[in-house]
Design goal:
The protein is of the alpha/beta class and 358 residues long. It is built from 13 helices and eleven strands. It is elongated. The model has no long low-confidence stretch (mean pLDDT 97). It binds 6-O-phosphono-beta-D-fructofuranose.
Protein backbone atom coordinates (compact mmCIF):
# COMPACT_ATOMS: atom_id res chain seq x y z
CA UNK A 1 0.00 0.00 0.00
CA UNK A 2 1.48 3.34 -1.07
CA UNK A 3 0.87 6.29 1.24
CA UNK A 4 0.92 9.64 -0.53
CA UNK A 5 0.64 13.18 0.86
CA UNK A 6 -0.71 15.93 -1.39
CA UNK A 7 -0.84 19.70 -1.06
CA UNK A 8 -1.46 22.87 -3.06
CA UNK A 9 0.54 25.92 -2.02
CA UNK A 10 0.77 29.62 -2.91
CA UNK A 11 -1.64 31.67 -5.03
CA UNK A 12 -4.31 29.48 -6.55
CA UNK A 13 -5.07 29.11 -10.25
CA UNK A 14 -7.28 27.18 -12.61
CA UNK A 15 -6.56 23.44 -13.02
CA UNK A 16 -5.20 22.74 -9.53
CA UNK A 17 -8.11 20.36 -8.98
CA UNK A 18 -7.75 18.92 -12.48
CA UNK A 19 -4.07 18.20 -11.76
CA UNK A 20 -4.75 16.52 -8.40
CA UNK A 21 -7.45 14.47 -10.09
CA UNK A 22 -4.91 13.44 -12.74
CA UNK A 23 -2.44 12.25 -10.07
CA UNK A 24 -5.10 10.49 -7.99
CA UNK A 25 -6.93 8.79 -10.85
CA UNK A 26 -3.67 7.41 -12.22
CA UNK A 27 -2.53 6.16 -8.81
CA UNK A 28 -5.88 4.50 -8.01
CA UNK A 29 -6.06 3.06 -11.51
CA UNK A 30 -2.50 1.77 -12.03
CA UNK A 31 -2.05 0.59 -8.43
CA UNK A 32 -5.51 -0.98 -8.51
CA UNK A 33 -6.64 0.93 -5.43
CA UNK A 34 -3.58 -0.04 -3.39
CA UNK A 35 -2.89 3.57 -2.35
CA UNK A 36 -3.94 6.04 0.32
CA UNK A 37 -3.86 9.77 -0.33
CA UNK A 38 -3.63 12.25 2.54
CA UNK A 39 -4.66 15.78 1.55
CA UNK A 40 -2.96 18.52 3.57
CA UNK A 41 -5.11 21.57 4.15
CA UNK A 42 -3.94 25.02 3.03
CA UNK A 43 -0.62 23.94 1.60
CA UNK A 44 2.51 23.67 3.74
CA UNK A 45 0.50 24.95 6.72
CA UNK A 46 -1.38 21.64 6.85
CA UNK A 47 1.88 19.71 6.64
CA UNK A 48 3.39 21.79 9.46
CA UNK A 49 0.39 21.49 11.76
CA UNK A 50 -0.63 17.92 10.94
CA UNK A 51 -3.85 19.13 9.39
CA UNK A 52 -4.98 16.59 6.82
CA UNK A 53 -7.84 14.48 5.55
CA UNK A 54 -7.64 10.95 4.24
CA UNK A 55 -9.03 11.39 0.74
CA UNK A 56 -11.50 9.02 -0.89
CA UNK A 57 -11.50 8.28 -4.62
CA UNK A 58 -14.86 10.07 -4.80
CA UNK A 59 -13.18 13.30 -3.55
CA UNK A 60 -11.44 13.47 -6.91
CA UNK A 61 -14.61 13.01 -8.94
CA UNK A 62 -16.36 15.95 -10.56
CA UNK A 63 -13.45 18.35 -10.05
CA UNK A 64 -11.88 18.39 -13.53
CA UNK A 65 -13.73 21.58 -14.41
CA UNK A 66 -13.77 23.22 -10.99
CA UNK A 67 -11.42 26.17 -10.34
CA UNK A 68 -9.64 26.84 -7.02
CA UNK A 69 -8.37 23.95 -4.91
CA UNK A 70 -10.38 21.47 -2.85
CA UNK A 71 -7.47 21.37 -0.36
CA UNK A 72 -7.23 25.13 0.11
CA UNK A 73 -3.98 27.04 -0.18
CA UNK A 74 -1.89 29.54 1.74
CA UNK A 75 1.30 31.48 1.21
CA UNK A 76 4.19 30.19 3.35
CA UNK A 77 7.16 32.23 2.15
CA UNK A 78 10.28 30.18 1.45
CA UNK A 79 12.50 32.84 3.01
CA UNK A 80 10.73 32.28 6.37
CA UNK A 81 10.96 28.47 6.31
CA UNK A 82 14.15 28.39 8.38
CA UNK A 83 13.03 31.24 10.65
CA UNK A 84 11.43 29.92 13.84
CA UNK A 85 7.74 30.77 14.25
CA UNK A 86 5.86 31.55 17.47
CA UNK A 87 7.36 29.86 20.54
CA UNK A 88 10.35 28.74 18.46
CA UNK A 89 8.18 26.59 16.14
CA UNK A 90 10.51 24.80 13.71
CA UNK A 91 8.57 24.64 10.43
CA UNK A 92 10.91 22.32 8.56
CA UNK A 93 11.18 19.84 11.43
CA UNK A 94 7.40 19.95 11.90
CA UNK A 95 6.82 19.07 8.24
CA UNK A 96 9.32 16.21 8.46
CA UNK A 97 7.64 14.91 11.61
CA UNK A 98 4.18 14.89 9.98
CA UNK A 99 5.61 13.08 6.95
CA UNK A 100 7.30 10.46 9.14
CA UNK A 101 4.37 9.97 11.53
CA UNK A 102 2.07 9.31 8.58
CA UNK A 103 4.70 6.95 7.14
CA UNK A 104 4.37 8.63 3.76
CA UNK A 105 6.12 7.21 0.70
CA UNK A 106 5.98 10.52 -1.14
CA UNK A 107 4.71 14.09 -1.06
CA UNK A 108 3.01 15.48 -4.16
CA UNK A 109 3.38 19.26 -4.20
CA UNK A 110 1.55 21.60 -6.58
CA UNK A 111 2.83 25.15 -6.66
CA UNK A 112 4.71 28.06 -8.14
CA UNK A 113 8.24 29.32 -7.66
CA UNK A 114 8.29 29.72 -3.88
CA UNK A 115 6.56 26.37 -3.48
CA UNK A 116 9.14 24.66 -5.70
CA UNK A 117 11.95 26.08 -3.53
CA UNK A 118 10.39 24.60 -0.41
CA UNK A 119 9.74 21.33 -2.27
CA UNK A 120 13.46 21.22 -3.07
CA UNK A 121 14.34 22.00 0.54
CA UNK A 122 12.18 19.09 1.75
CA UNK A 123 13.75 16.85 -0.87
CA UNK A 124 17.22 17.85 0.35
CA UNK A 125 16.05 17.09 3.89
CA UNK A 126 15.45 13.51 2.79
CA UNK A 127 11.72 13.45 2.01
CA UNK A 128 10.49 11.86 -1.23
CA UNK A 129 8.97 14.64 -3.29
CA UNK A 130 7.35 14.96 -6.72
CA UNK A 131 6.14 18.42 -7.70
CA UNK A 132 3.96 19.95 -10.42
CA UNK A 133 4.24 23.43 -12.00
CA UNK A 134 1.31 25.68 -11.12
CA UNK A 135 0.94 29.37 -11.90
CA UNK A 136 -0.86 31.77 -14.17
CA UNK A 137 2.49 33.58 -14.52
CA UNK A 138 4.13 30.76 -16.52
CA UNK A 139 7.46 31.72 -14.94
CA UNK A 140 8.64 28.38 -13.56
CA UNK A 141 12.05 27.36 -14.77
CA UNK A 142 12.29 23.93 -16.43
CA UNK A 143 8.89 23.88 -18.10
CA UNK A 144 7.63 25.57 -21.27
CA UNK A 145 4.16 25.72 -19.80
CA UNK A 146 2.55 25.81 -16.38
CA UNK A 147 -1.06 24.84 -15.77
CA UNK A 148 -3.29 27.85 -15.15
CA UNK A 149 -1.45 30.06 -17.63
CA UNK A 150 -3.60 29.47 -20.68
CA UNK A 151 -6.89 29.83 -18.75
CA UNK A 152 -5.68 33.10 -17.25
CA UNK A 153 -4.58 34.35 -20.68
CA UNK A 154 -8.11 33.59 -21.93
CA UNK A 155 -9.64 35.72 -19.17
CA UNK A 156 -7.15 38.55 -19.71
CA UNK A 157 -7.80 38.41 -23.46
CA UNK A 158 -11.53 38.62 -23.00
CA UNK A 159 -11.00 41.64 -20.69
CA UNK A 160 -9.07 43.35 -23.51
CA UNK A 161 -11.77 42.31 -26.02
CA UNK A 162 -14.46 43.97 -23.89
CA UNK A 163 -12.36 47.12 -23.57
CA UNK A 164 -11.88 47.23 -27.34
CA UNK A 165 -15.54 47.93 -28.03
CA UNK A 166 -15.94 50.63 -25.40
CA UNK A 167 -12.57 52.20 -26.28
CA UNK A 168 -13.58 52.52 -29.91
CA UNK A 169 -17.00 54.01 -29.01
CA UNK A 170 -15.47 56.68 -26.79
CA UNK A 171 -12.19 57.27 -28.55
CA UNK A 172 -10.25 56.77 -25.33
CA UNK A 173 -6.91 55.40 -24.31
CA UNK A 174 -7.35 52.36 -22.09
CA UNK A 175 -4.78 50.60 -19.96
CA UNK A 176 -5.54 47.01 -19.01
CA UNK A 177 -3.27 46.01 -16.12
CA UNK A 178 -2.57 42.29 -16.03
CA UNK A 179 -0.99 40.05 -13.41
CA UNK A 180 2.74 39.44 -13.37
CA UNK A 181 5.00 41.31 -10.97
CA UNK A 182 8.26 39.88 -12.19
CA UNK A 183 7.52 38.39 -15.61
CA UNK A 184 5.39 39.42 -18.56
CA UNK A 185 4.23 36.15 -20.14
CA UNK A 186 0.55 36.76 -19.39
CA UNK A 187 0.61 40.33 -20.63
CA UNK A 188 2.59 39.42 -23.73
CA UNK A 189 0.24 36.60 -24.75
CA UNK A 190 -3.02 38.33 -23.80
CA UNK A 191 -1.77 41.55 -25.36
CA UNK A 192 -1.12 39.85 -28.69
CA UNK A 193 -4.34 37.81 -28.48
CA UNK A 194 -6.40 40.90 -27.63
CA UNK A 195 -4.79 43.11 -30.27
CA UNK A 196 -3.23 45.56 -27.80
CA UNK A 197 -1.33 48.43 -29.41
CA UNK A 198 1.28 48.75 -26.67
CA UNK A 199 2.56 45.99 -24.39
CA UNK A 200 4.65 46.84 -21.33
CA UNK A 201 6.34 44.03 -19.42
CA UNK A 202 8.97 43.92 -16.64
CA UNK A 203 11.62 42.36 -18.89
CA UNK A 204 11.54 45.31 -21.33
CA UNK A 205 11.78 48.60 -19.39
CA UNK A 206 9.86 51.37 -21.14
CA UNK A 207 10.56 55.01 -21.90
CA UNK A 208 7.37 56.99 -21.26
CA UNK A 209 8.18 59.31 -24.20
CA UNK A 210 8.21 56.30 -26.52
CA UNK A 211 4.88 55.12 -25.10
CA UNK A 212 3.38 58.58 -25.66
CA UNK A 213 4.83 58.68 -29.20
CA UNK A 214 3.21 55.32 -29.97
CA UNK A 215 -0.21 56.67 -28.93
CA UNK A 216 0.41 59.90 -30.91
CA UNK A 217 1.34 57.88 -33.98
CA UNK A 218 -1.99 56.04 -33.78
CA UNK A 219 -3.88 59.29 -33.34
CA UNK A 220 -2.14 60.72 -36.40
CA UNK A 221 -3.08 57.63 -38.38
CA UNK A 222 -6.70 58.41 -37.58
CA UNK A 223 -7.20 55.72 -34.92
CA UNK A 224 -9.65 56.93 -32.31
CA UNK A 225 -8.41 54.78 -29.47
CA UNK A 226 -5.40 52.93 -28.12
CA UNK A 227 -5.13 49.95 -25.81
CA UNK A 228 -2.16 49.27 -23.59
CA UNK A 229 -1.65 45.88 -21.95
CA UNK A 230 0.54 46.61 -18.94
CA UNK A 231 1.97 44.02 -16.54
CA UNK A 232 1.77 44.78 -12.81
CA UNK A 233 5.56 44.76 -12.78
CA UNK A 234 6.12 46.99 -15.83
CA UNK A 235 8.97 49.35 -15.10
CA UNK A 236 10.38 52.49 -16.70
CA UNK A 237 14.01 52.58 -17.85
CA UNK A 238 14.61 55.24 -15.22
CA UNK A 239 13.25 53.08 -12.39
CA UNK A 240 15.02 49.98 -13.67
CA UNK A 241 18.32 51.83 -13.19
CA UNK A 242 17.62 52.48 -9.48
CA UNK A 243 18.91 50.29 -6.68
CA UNK A 244 16.31 48.01 -5.02
CA UNK A 245 16.32 50.25 -1.96
CA UNK A 246 15.84 53.50 -3.88
CA UNK A 247 13.09 51.96 -6.01
CA UNK A 248 11.22 50.79 -2.92
CA UNK A 249 11.53 54.31 -1.43
CA UNK A 250 10.29 55.94 -4.63
CA UNK A 251 7.33 53.55 -4.86
CA UNK A 252 6.37 54.08 -1.23
CA UNK A 253 6.18 57.83 -1.90
CA UNK A 254 4.25 57.47 -5.19
CA UNK A 255 0.68 58.84 -5.20
CA UNK A 256 -0.35 56.16 -7.73
CA UNK A 257 -1.78 52.82 -6.58
CA UNK A 258 -0.01 50.97 -9.42
CA UNK A 259 2.31 51.71 -12.33
CA UNK A 260 -0.63 51.77 -14.77
CA UNK A 261 -2.15 54.83 -13.10
CA UNK A 262 1.18 56.64 -13.35
CA UNK A 263 1.49 55.77 -17.04
CA UNK A 264 -2.15 56.79 -17.59
CA UNK A 265 -1.61 60.19 -15.95
CA UNK A 266 1.49 60.86 -18.04
CA UNK A 267 -0.23 59.93 -21.31
CA UNK A 268 -3.30 61.97 -20.34
CA UNK A 269 -1.20 65.03 -19.48
CA UNK A 270 0.88 64.80 -22.66
CA UNK A 271 -2.04 64.29 -25.05
CA UNK A 272 -4.93 65.98 -23.29
CA UNK A 273 -6.82 62.77 -23.87
CA UNK A 274 -8.92 60.68 -21.49
CA UNK A 275 -7.13 57.61 -20.16
CA UNK A 276 -8.89 54.89 -18.17
CA UNK A 277 -7.25 52.07 -16.22
CA UNK A 278 -8.90 48.65 -15.89
CA UNK A 279 -7.56 46.02 -13.50
CA UNK A 280 -9.11 42.55 -13.91
CA UNK A 281 -7.00 41.44 -10.89
CA UNK A 282 -7.80 38.09 -9.34
CA UNK A 283 -10.50 37.28 -11.90
CA UNK A 284 -7.48 36.13 -13.93
CA UNK A 285 -6.89 33.30 -11.46
CA UNK A 286 -10.52 32.33 -11.10
CA UNK A 287 -13.11 30.13 -12.71
CA UNK A 288 -12.85 26.91 -14.64
CA UNK A 289 -9.72 25.74 -16.45
CA UNK A 290 -9.94 25.92 -20.23
CA UNK A 291 -9.64 22.79 -22.34
CA UNK A 292 -5.90 23.30 -22.95
CA UNK A 293 -5.21 23.42 -19.20
CA UNK A 294 -7.46 20.43 -18.58
CA UNK A 295 -5.35 18.41 -20.99
CA UNK A 296 -1.90 19.45 -19.76
CA UNK A 297 -2.89 19.21 -16.09
CA UNK A 298 -4.32 15.72 -16.61
CA UNK A 299 -1.15 14.70 -18.46
CA UNK A 300 1.15 16.27 -15.86
CA UNK A 301 -0.84 14.58 -13.10
CA UNK A 302 -0.62 11.19 -14.78
CA UNK A 303 3.13 11.65 -15.35
CA UNK A 304 3.70 12.64 -11.71
CA UNK A 305 1.85 9.49 -10.59
CA UNK A 306 4.09 7.41 -12.85
CA UNK A 307 7.19 8.88 -11.18
CA UNK A 308 5.76 7.91 -7.78
CA UNK A 309 4.98 4.39 -8.96
CA UNK A 310 8.53 4.07 -10.33
CA UNK A 311 9.88 5.60 -7.07
CA UNK A 312 11.68 8.39 -8.91
CA UNK A 313 11.75 11.26 -6.46
CA UNK A 314 13.17 14.76 -6.32
CA UNK A 315 11.63 15.88 -9.63
CA UNK A 316 9.14 18.38 -10.96
CA UNK A 317 7.22 17.22 -14.01
CA UNK A 318 7.81 19.75 -16.79
CA UNK A 319 6.06 20.19 -20.13
CA UNK A 320 8.74 20.69 -22.75
CA UNK A 321 8.48 20.46 -26.56
CA UNK A 322 5.05 18.90 -26.19
CA UNK A 323 6.33 16.12 -24.05
CA UNK A 324 6.43 15.62 -20.29
CA UNK A 325 9.83 15.25 -18.69
CA UNK A 326 11.06 14.94 -15.11
CA UNK A 327 13.19 17.96 -14.22
CA UNK A 328 15.41 17.70 -11.10
CA UNK A 329 13.99 19.96 -8.39
CA UNK A 330 17.44 21.35 -7.66
CA UNK A 331 17.54 22.71 -11.23
CA UNK A 332 14.11 24.32 -10.87
CA UNK A 333 14.42 25.87 -7.42
CA UNK A 334 15.37 29.53 -7.20
CA UNK A 335 15.23 30.38 -10.91
CA UNK A 336 12.60 32.28 -12.86
CA UNK A 337 11.73 31.83 -16.53
CA UNK A 338 11.67 35.32 -18.03
CA UNK A 339 10.49 36.60 -21.40
CA UNK A 340 13.61 37.05 -23.52
CA UNK A 341 13.41 40.54 -25.08
CA UNK A 342 15.27 39.13 -28.12
CA UNK A 343 12.90 36.16 -28.54
CA UNK A 344 10.94 35.43 -31.71
CA UNK A 345 7.59 36.18 -30.11
CA UNK A 346 8.68 39.68 -29.05
CA UNK A 347 10.22 40.35 -32.46
CA UNK A 348 7.07 39.15 -34.20
CA UNK A 349 4.90 41.33 -31.99
CA UNK A 350 7.11 44.30 -32.92
CA UNK A 351 6.82 43.38 -36.60
CA UNK A 352 3.04 43.50 -36.14
CA UNK A 353 3.44 47.12 -35.08
CA UNK A 354 3.04 46.57 -31.33
CA UNK A 355 5.14 49.01 -29.29
CA UNK A 356 6.97 47.82 -26.17
CA UNK A 357 7.88 51.39 -25.28
CA UNK A 358 11.61 50.56 -25.48
O1 LIG B 1 1.15 33.81 -8.40
C1 LIG B 1 0.62 34.56 -9.38
C2 LIG B 1 0.11 35.89 -9.00
O2 LIG B 1 -1.12 35.80 -9.56
C3 LIG B 1 0.87 37.11 -9.51
O3 LIG B 1 0.83 37.34 -10.87
C4 LIG B 1 0.23 38.19 -8.69
O4 LIG B 1 0.99 39.33 -8.65
C5 LIG B 1 0.13 37.53 -7.37
O5 LIG B 1 -0.03 36.15 -7.63
C6 LIG B 1 -0.92 38.09 -6.46
O6 LIG B 1 -1.36 37.15 -5.57
P1 LIG B 1 -1.93 37.39 -4.10
O7 LIG B 1 -2.85 38.57 -4.17
O8 LIG B 1 -2.62 36.13 -3.77
O9 LIG B 1 -0.77 37.63 -3.24
Amino acid sequence: MKRIGMLTSGGDCQALNATMRGVAKTLYNVLDGDVQIFGFEEGYRGLMYNDYVLMKPSDFSGILTVGGTILGSSRQPFKLMRIPGENGFNKVEAMKTTYRNLKLDCLVILGGNGTQKTANLLSEEGLNVVSLPKTIDNDIYGTDMTFGFQSAVDIATSAIDCIHTTASSHGRVFIVELMGHKVGWMTLHAGIAGGADIILIPEIPYDINHVISAVKKRNKAGKRFSILAVAEGAISKEDAALSKKDLAKKRAASPFPTVSYEIGKKIGDALGQEVRVVVPGHTQRGGAPDSYDRVISSRLGAAAARLIIEEKYGYMVGFNNNSIVPVPLKEVAGKLKYVDPQSEIVQQAKDLGISFGD
